[in-house]
Every structure is written in C-alpha cells, then in structure tokens.
Amino acid sequence: MKFIRGSYGIFADADGASKFSDVEKLLDSIKQLDKNEPFINPAIAIGSRAHMVNTDAVVKRSFIRNFLMYGLHFLVFVFGIRTIKDTQCGFKLFNRASIDLIFPNMHTEGWIFDVEVLIIAIRKGILIKEVPISWHEVDGSKMDLARDSMNMAIDLVVTRLAYLLGVYKDHKKIKSD
Fold it and tell me: What sections of the protein cross the membrane (predicted)?
C-alpha cells in the first residue's frame, strides 16, 4: 500500500470470497467521503458482511467458527472499535491521504492487521464507511481456527495496549475540525 502510485488502493483477500465488481460500491462511497480529493481528505470504504449475519452464509457455518467469530467481535468491541460491525472483511479501499497516514505506522503482520488499520484510522479521525458487499464462504482456508484465533486474540490485546501505553506511536496527526 505504501508504494501505490494512484489515488486509491484496495486490498482484497486472495480467496475470492468478495466479488471484485463490488469495488464500484466502495469507490462511490469513498468519493463521497473524500469529496473527490483523495490526496487531501483521508477516507476509507470497507466491505462489510454485517448485513449477512442471519443469512445462510453465517447460519450454516460450524458452531466453532461462529463462536470464534463472535468472540473476536466481542474483543474488538471491548478494545475500542465500537462503530464498525465487520472489521475482518478483507475488502478495503483507501484513498491516498489515508494510506499515507496509516500504513507507515503499522506494526502488526498477522491476521489481526485489519484491526490495527482501523485502530490507527480511528485514532487519526479518518472517515470510514462500511459498505455492504456480496460475499461467500470459500473452502480451503489457510487459517488454523484454534491456533490462529488464539494468536489473533493475543495480537489484538498486545496491539491495543501498545497504542494505549504509547509503545506504538502515531507519527502524523491530521488536523481536527
């Protein structure tokens, strides 16, 4: 992300669970937030699966997978991200101003990096909009549910505490209105 040349940068999970055609929805949303000034007004549009909670996509998942998902949502809520319903959707669009503020300050390299992106964005007052997208479960995940869920929980606690205690610092602050 730090080396993009254009006005916007997107990341999407490699498994293809999100429809790439939904990038138009994200682009429309981010342009509303940044008022078509992607180098000046920091903004993020994130794909969200929150509208799918009571659909077959979630209902038919295994008990353990849903238990771990809700457990992570609870931890994320406790550790300060209360306005975003789906922090883990791997379909996020950033404008250039937000990329320049967030990615040079990243520390986390594991599965929980999505949450650190949002922690930094919230700390800096960057506008964020969740956008409902199409999504479907894809078999063949590289994630080991038990081990990686524990690592995500530990990384979340460590990352949040590091920001609260000043171990991780934000080097560029944006002006607040």
Answer: 67-84
